[in-house]
Amino acid sequence: MSIRAIVVDNSEELLEKITRILREMEDVELCGSFGEAIAAIQYVKENPVDIVFSDVVMPDISGITLASKIYQLPDPPEVVLLSGIPGFSLEAWKIRAFGFIIKPYTRVQIVDMLNRYRCEREARKVL
Description:
- It is a single chain.
- This protein is an alpha/beta fold.
- The chain has one domain (3-126): Rossmann fold.
- Helices cover 46% and strands 22% of the residues.
- A five-stranded parallel sheet has the order 2-1-3-4-5, sandwiched between helices.
- Helix 2 (37-46) runs parallel beside helix 3 (63-71).
- The radius of gyration is 13 Å and the shape is globular.
């Protein structure tokens, strides 16, 4: 079963980077990439998504707010927050984000986060 993912980042360069990483993975279906958080929230409301990778600092709403809104939805996807500011990790923890990765991130960090997601998804099936 593939992992349905979307990415949200107002930086076109970083959006392209994570999009490229996810497209290279065999069991990941990249469902969308968004430069604005509001468009991403609307997409998640209307489509099945397993995991969201989102920048924290964005002009419309923050990734923290995005994650909070997503987690209020029925059967929400997990959210991994990305930021060049390590201090946001506490905020990510407070809202119980699935993960937090400090920019600049590597392919290995993204793959590790997806592996963790796979393991937790399988564990939930067993329970």
